[in-house]
Amino acid sequence: MIPAAFDYYRPKDMAGVLALLQEHGDDARVMAGGHSLIPMMKLRMAEVPHLIDLQDVPGMSEISIGDGKIRIGALVTQHDIIAHEGLAQSAPILREAAMQIADPQVRYMGTVGGNLANGDPGNDMPGLMQCLDAQFTLVGADGERSVAAREFYEAAYMTARADDEVLTEITLATPNGGYAYEKQKRKIGDYATAAAAVQITRDGSRCASASIAMTNLSDVPVWSQSAGSALVDTEVGSDAIKAAVAYMLDEIDPTEDNRGPVAFKRHVAGAILTRAIQRAWSRA
Amino acid sequence: MKDDVELTREDRVANLKGMGCARKRVEDARFTQGKGNYIDDINLPGMLHGDFVRSPYAHAKVLSINTEAAMALDGVIAVLTAKDLEPLSLHWMPTLAGDKQMVLADGKVLFQGQEVAFVVATDRYIAADAVELVEVEYEDLPVITDPFEALKSDIVLREDLAGQTSGAHGPRKHHNHIFTWEVGDEEATNQVMDEAEVVAEETMYYHRTHPCPLETCGSVASMDKVNGKLTVYGTFQAPHVVRTVASLLSGIEEHNIRVISPDIGGGFGNKVGVYPGYVCSIVASIVTGVPVKWVEDRMENLMSTAFARDYWMKGRISATKDGKITGLHCHVTADHGAFDACADPTKFPAGFMSVCTGSYDIPVAYLGVDGVYTNKAPGGVSYRCSFRVTEAVYFIERMIEVLAIELNMDAAELRRINFIGKDQFPYQSALGWEYDSGDYHTAWDKALKAVDYEGLRREQSERVTAFKQGETRSLMGIGLAFFTEIVGAGPVKNCDILGMGMFDSCEIRIHPTGSAIARLGTISQGQGHATTFAQILASEIGIPADSITIEEGDTDTAPYGLGTYGSRSTPVAGAATAMAGRKIRAKAQMIAAYLLEVHDDDVEFDVDRFVVKGAPERFKTMAEVAYAAYNQAIPGIEPGLEAVSYYDPPNMTYPFGAYVCVMDIDVDTGVPTIRRFYALDDCGTRINPMVIEGQIHGGLTEALAVALGQEIAYDDMGNVKTGTLMDFFLPTAWEVPNYETDHTVTPSPHHPIGAKGVGESPHVGGVPCFSNAVMDAFRAFGLRHSNMPHDHWRIWQTAQDLGLHK
Ligand SMILES: Cc1cc2nc3c(=O)[nH]c(=O)nc-3n(C[C@H](O)[C@H](O)[C@H](O)COP(=O)(O)OP(=O)(O)OC[C@H]3O[C@@H](n4cnc5c(N)ncnc54)[C@H](O)[C@@H]3O)c2cc1C
Questions:
Q1: What is the pLDDT of residues B720-775, one digit of tens each?
Q2: Which residue in A103, A186, A263 is closest to B729 by CB distance?
Q3: Is the pTM of this model over 0.80?
Q4: A67 and A13 share a domain?
Q5: Nearest-CB residue to A264 (from B721, B726, B797)
Q6: A23 and A85: one domain?
Q7: What is the CA(A78)–ligand 1 centre distance, in A?
Q8: What is d(CA A187, CA A197) in angstroms, rounded to the nearest whole number?
């Protein structure tokens, strides 16, 4: 549990970060809250000869809400998300999800950007951001670009972000309607056995739109368009929910681990998704 | 002293904060302010740091070890391998169970995480880097993680024992077999079974788990080459025994070894054994002449230092049609891992497993235990219980449930009709124990009434109906457990560890101004000895607990004792404390009589003073007597006021309790929710109700952990699958329910203050109680038994196997 030696940098601006990334290439990694990266370094599963701390880089710690949009700086912590009253009004699913991540100590340190850039299938925010159709702003030597959350995840720990790019901001349209983030875990501080993010809107007695994503049931988060569509234009009764669950179960691909065998995870995925849809619909 | 005159007798009793007082723990002031002094807080000038190269394989030959690259790293002082220890005969060490264990891999490794080489460096970080640079060439061998397979296999795990047909505990039946231990009358038991109206059988696996104290194991050894003294600080639950062992192993005379257990951050059995890390830090300090520290990390703790349980138990219980138990048969296949390093009294290779007849009047019984080697870490310690008592109690409390199912009877009633009656104590059990005291019926009735047992059963059957009608997906379980513990080892005539009788001790010095210090042979790891032992003494000698310092853990100052585990501190050292206190009082009485100018027999002790019989206004307080002991020449009496007592307990003590757990189970996700937990404990005389309450909460929480998810699991290759706290379940406040505690008081008749010990009871009773709740939820659907740990997927699997997901 002791990391290999590394050099520590704390640049004052993004230019400094990018320069270090250019200089050291693969041997450098940025660090935000450090609550995924440092454990990996201590286990000597990640070797980071040059560690670049982002904490002093300005402009990445704000949450702003307006014009139907929400902007979240990459260094905003999971605790900030929970504490932000405006956000709790405009996008309550963020608080509901953040409350189910780790414990208060971890949430004081862990950032939204780090959670999203990490690429661990167990992280909760990627599926959540796919559900909300967020956009990620990446800054690199060649300037800025935007990638959709739904396009960002390629495989475990593999994302569309180039090694020398930094995730700076997350942008999403203010969500409407009912929401739910439902997660089953073994204990506090555990990653999901299965988790579901559901955002759903209502038109009278019928569902107008639905977006559904699940976490830790594949090597990437699973946003299922067909699962969402199965609810649209229905009264979200048990048949519609069953259809949505069936679509989702088609798309997930869980593996066996200490949380349990595949059959169990698939069954739990169905139960968790059913509950998430029911709760979201009851709030729509 | 004049102020005292105004005080009522009640006030004087209260001032002592003696027995029965909910005195606040005196230790907590430092622990809650981060001022504890744990092993890793000890930093000596010039100290070096050690770290282990460990085996990634569960079974492999070690072909070569190349230390060159590691030695070349700046700051590396030494890399020790078995070859370096061999000239000192320290490459192997004896275990507490009469076996021997490699200190560093001697030609092969037998479990994942085994110690292969010990790197010593000027800095902890350099040591960790150097570990990576040691090149070890392995040739992997077939791995055996299943004890039944081990007993059939041609593969010889312990080549060093090849050809030895007999071990420390008698004949070995196979090269991977360690011992067979038998208690009771098998023939008579079988005969009762053959003739019985009803026989219930069950096989159960008590999985492997780990005590996982918050502080891991470690030591700092400091050899002073000038005066020839070796000082060893360490996480030792038995410091005096460690000194003796260290002396025998190293050849250093025992008076030249000082062992110190500083504050210990939890032990739960994990810190009873002797580990390679201790030996290596000592050798490294002897070799280098400077202090050497070794502290294991969490993963090393979980994978290499003493596990607990790993018992495959096969039971048969017989009864009459109306539920009177007639016999019990139990066979255990005990997986001891690569070396037999169980921490049990010498004559008990399966500990006190023979208390498995439980709280019931069972006329005939038999227990057979076979110990087996496998490619897993050694250990087999008593994790928050007296030696193998959790196994025994889990076994009998499961057998009772299975019998209740077989008889189609209520499990609470089945227990009641089989309890040992109050008038049967002292009770001779079929497997040889003399239960000192008990009143089981009263406790049971109180518990069932407190939870409205009938009402719970009604609610449960309504829930079953609702479930069957598709109105709910949640089931309700009512977990029952009644346990009898056997603690306070133990009588020297049959209890020893490495030949040292399991007495314990207390030495008291009363200072001239009326305060005192008492030193004991035990060592607190969080139990609160500094608080409670002062209370025992306060009541015995009339000096306020606040004026008494309790000290343990330094072998240069404390009297010899066997340490703290198996709930033995209060039953044994607590008794020694009371006895030493009585010696003080006896001398003090003579001094008081002299001061009061009356005959010894004419004064009597009253709370904090000696009064002249019939003239209560004529008295001398204990403080006055203490002063006189040092400032007056009293004819016929030596100056000073000190006493020491070594207490050899005449018997074990037998705390008991009645627990009820109410649980809701989500059939689709396998998630259990504990709605209620009621715990009634009878630990005899209660020294400090608040400390008892804390012990019960802690023990129940560890019971919840073990029952619902905590395990050390291996894959087929012998890889540890649960080596971090991400996968090894350590409950937090979030997972823990509200505990309702209750008690009855049945003092131990042979203990000087009637106390029985309580620290481990809640664990012993809690594990079957939580487990029985899970299984009880499925009883209506045909479940007889399912193995722990009842984590989400296993509960789900139970529901799945019963067809509840259709
Ligand atoms: C005990 C424990 C329990 C946890 N439980 C959960 C849980 O239930 N759910 C969950 O989602 N998470 C959980 N986490 C992870 C936690 O939320 C982390 O904080 C989070 O995953 C990473 O955020 P961070 O700011 O700490 O990132 P860091 O650890 O600093 O970085 C993580 C990775 O992202 C990269 N990175 C960070 N920021 C940026 C950026 N702006 N641009 C580009 N790359 C970047 C780093 O280089 C690194 O590779 C847990 C962590 C712990 C220690």
A1: 999 999 999 999 999 999 999 999 999 999 999 999 999 999 999 999 999 999 99
A2: A186
A3: yes
A4: no
A5: B797
A6: no
A7: 10
A8: 19
